[in-house]
Amino acid sequence: MTSHPITQVSRRSVLKGLTALGAGTLLVPSVLRQAYAAAVADGEVVTGSHFGVHYAKVEGGKLVAVRPHEADLVPVEQATTLVDWAYSPTRIKYPMVRKGFLKDGVNSDRTERGKGEFVRVSWDEALDLVASELKRVKDEHGNGSIYGGSYGWRTPAMLHNCFNNLYRLLNLNGGFVDDVNTYSTGAIRVILPYVIGTSYYDSSTWPSIIENTEQIVFWGSDPAVTSRIGWSVPNHAGLKYLEEYKATGKPSISVNPINTETAKLLGSDWVAPRPGTDVAMMLGIAHTLVAEDLHDTEFLANYCSGFEEFSAYLKGEPDGTEKTAEWAAEICGVDADKLKEMARSMAAKRTLITMGWSIQRQDHGEQGPWMAHTLACMLGYIGLPGGGADFTLHYASYGTPKGHGPSFAGFPAGEASKEVPAPIPCSRVPWALANAGEKYDYNGQEYTTPDLRLVIWAGGNPFHHHQERNKQIDFWQKPETIIISDINWTQSARFADIVLPISTLFERNDICNISEQNAGLCAMQQAIEPLFESKTDFWVYSQVAKRLGFEAEYTDGMDEMGWLKHIYEEGVAKAAEKGIESPDFDTFWNEKKVWMYDVTDEKRNYVQFAKFREDPLLNPVATPSGMFEILSRKIAGYGYDDCPGHPTWMEPFERLGGTMSDKYPLHMTSSHPDYRLHSQLDNADLRHSYEVENREPVWIHPDAAEARGIADGDVVRIFNDRGAVLAGAVVTDRMKSDVIRLQEGAWYDPAEPGTKGALCKHGDPNVLTFDKGTSKLAQGNCAHTALVEIEKYAGDLPTITTFDPVA
Amino acid sequence: MPTESLDKPAAAVPDPAFYQWLAGLFIREQTAETLGVLKAPETRREFHDLAGEDVLRGRLDRLLDVAANPADPEDQVLDLASAYALLFLGVGGSREGVPPYESVYTGPDGRLYQEATAEMETLLKDQGLWLADRREPADHIAVELELLAQLTARAADDAGAAARRRTLLADHLLVWAWEFCDLCRDRDRSGFYAAAAEVLRALLEAEERALKAL
């Protein structure tokens, strides 16, 4: 290229040149320093995640492997992808502020949200901004204008629990508006206390069920998938129990439009109704029980109230429609003979109905669990080992006998203010953000939406879990300020104004209970230094507290290890009062690390409602009548048109064989993903093992595929009036021919970022779902009520960008 | 061979001050102060003096011209910060961004902290250096450039440094930095980082020639 000599280097230019370039201004501070010092020692530490108990291996300061701990009874594939998850290019590296917000503050153009215009700021600037925004909104509008519900699946941890850290900050700041219930269990949580007088999550134990049941009906549930994850650190006992059940050779029925992993494992009798018609199907079975005199009249008389009214409804007295098996068959698409056979089989065998949550994540979702419990009342096996109805056995480690050990309160969220507006049912939050002053019904009361101005959200992903993305984008432009702290650049972070980077579980110390049944305790020891400028939630909110003048109240003068020791010692002191001996903290932390608790015989053989069955007068259930309420006068008294006083079949807003099915002839189920936790891990390498053409797989029946000219491996467009997504076709006969399966959790990836109506290139099912409450009673979400059409995608394939840090 | 090459490459390679300066330019956003220095006439003179070569002078001039003539003088700092975030902090993603990490270009799946990071850490340790803070991995373009500056300054007296300098160039910078420069050229809408990348390209081309001349 050039023949003349290149710059002569000399001592002069090296030394002088460095300083001469703007007297050092251009050069400092340097990125290097003298002398290497290892930050974290090589070796293995013990930790845990939503996916099990693990050893984390560190080499040269880097996380290189995660392997199962011995306490993890059935390790799952999700854990294998945690290393690349920690080093994902989607990590938020620095505090960032949306450009327009940095320049114009609350007067900025909020349609810029989601479009990826961000500027890096220092932690000081970011924290100052968070503190000043909290102060501004509080001063100008009051604490009732701060939404801090922060819904989502936080990392399991006692101290670095992002909710409690955020809530503690906001409570010390004078209060905030919270949310109530969950996207998973919105309807069941509200309806079941009326019916059974207690919450939904009190399962009989698996050992008792395995020994005593004669048949399990998995109704819309797939524990072989949903027991892979846990809200606390799971030891996967649920997966082990499924294998044990299989070994007994006892029968099972799987009622599900999908031939589930569980049904395959157990060789279940697969019965596939139209999605959303379960209540009609159960009514047909109930009718058969009465018609053939198979129902347990004694149980109904002694333990239940309201069967007479319900029975009249079965016979069609109030509405002129008898709920015969034939009537039900017409709606649910399962033969009347099959329904009758099921009724006879369930009556003859001690049967446990274990119902999943999809049944109540749909229009009128309160009815399914209510009807399932009513069916179990009619069968009369409730309170006997191996019988009854259950609503949680399929999930995480429910059904595991409770451990006889200390339980820990964890990092305290502090006292909630009573001066702020009532919590909002979580699936109504996006609507509420944009509709201040609107009236809504919930659980027997009328409420008015508060004037929410500021949203501060820690460790959740509403742009995954909420329904009807295109409507949500509109709602999201209303709040003045949106602050998100997270590990990754989720779409929720992209739609925020202030984005704070949080470190992963591998980057801090913590402790966590093993399983929701408190089967043990697990140390979560730091493996690596926090990546980039990520920090713990505890640090972040203590620094905001400092700026608001209550740092000492926030930290109570303790640091990370100080808090862990405090939380531990508080728990073991209480346990000591019950005669439970515990190692001291240092011994636990340095030597024991994983501590599995003993299990007493009583807890091993626990049967839900056994005491009630033994003596219903002495041990009544906590309903107004003290009995199971097949008729709830309280609910009837609310006068809700979408939730009457007893289990009732009501047409959903759309369904196969019903409304909209002419235009959109396929039903989309968005079940819990096989290899993720909702949207968590979708940014990890494991997705390459199941994705098709880089897109979320959609299961299509061979008949439906053939009729549309779709082949396995094609990219398809799934659409309805609410939106459109691309996905990768997997042609399989593992479901009813007019059902497709697009599992929830694929990251939203709009072709035009931040733009309403954009095509999702990746396969987020919540682009296609409808944003509506289940009913005025529970206001749960209706994600499972969704009709769609599907076609082979003809356009050029757009590149997937949602896993880029920000697109 | 290290002993023979001590003088020859030293006589043909760019002034390490440029690497040190570019390291700073790629590791953090411009401020009003740094832009002020870039606009100062003395800086242009100093650059010319250090550059020696016409191609490099031309590219330095281009960068200084871009710095001196922003589209919106009032918002220059904010606009450049946004451009920086778009390119180097992930805001532009894979379509508009330019990941400043070697691992992304040479490892699997665009992942961070791959083999390149480990190799760079070894080079740093061998030279008795380490990251001033651990915010960025060792295969960040700025770390590689600052190490190159340090090794260039020491190569004449230190055979180990000279050998590491060759490793850093042959196994790292001259492998992936071209693509990095190409992406800056194609994707930077501010013009500033595209111009900076062209300066880097001129420096590395000189290094490549010097290596080949060995």
Automatic annotation (TrEMBL), chain A:
Cellular localization per UniProt: Periplasm
Keywords, alphabetical: Metal-binding, Molybdenum, Oxidoreductase, Periplasm, Signal
Gene3D superfamilies (UniProt xref): 2.40.40.20, 3.40.50.740, Dimethylsulfoxide Reductase, domain 2, Dimethylsulfoxide Reductase, domain 3
A single Gene Ontology CC term: outer membrane-bounded periplasmic space
GO biological process, one term: anaerobic respiration
Top-level taxon of origin: Bacteria
Domain called Molybdopterin dinucleotide-binding: residue spans: 666-785
Pfam families, A to Z: Molybdopterin (PF00384), Molybdopterin_N (PF18364), Molydop_binding (PF01568)
The Molybdopterin oxidoreductase N-terminal domain, residue ranges: 47-85
Cofactor(s) needed for function: Mo-bis(molybdopterin guanine dinucleotide)
GO molecular function, one term: molybdopterin cofactor binding
EC number per UniProt: 1.7.2.3
Domain Molybdopterin oxidoreductase: 91-547
PANTHER family listed in its UniProt record: TRIMETHYLAMINE-N-OXIDE REDUCTASE (PTHR43742), TRIMETHYLAMINE-N-OXIDE REDUCTASE 2 (PTHR43742:SF10)
Family to which this protein belongs: Belongs to the prokaryotic molybdopterin-containing oxidoreductase family.
Protein name: trimethylamine-N-oxide reductase
Automatic annotation (TrEMBL), chain B:
Gene3D superfamilies hit by this protein: TorD-like
Alphabetized InterPro entries for the sequence: DMSO/NO3_reduct_chaperone, TorD-like_sf, TorD/DmsD_chaperones
SUPFAM superfamilies xref list: TorD-like (SSF89155)
Keyword tags: Chaperone
Name used for this protein in its record: Molecular chaperone TorD
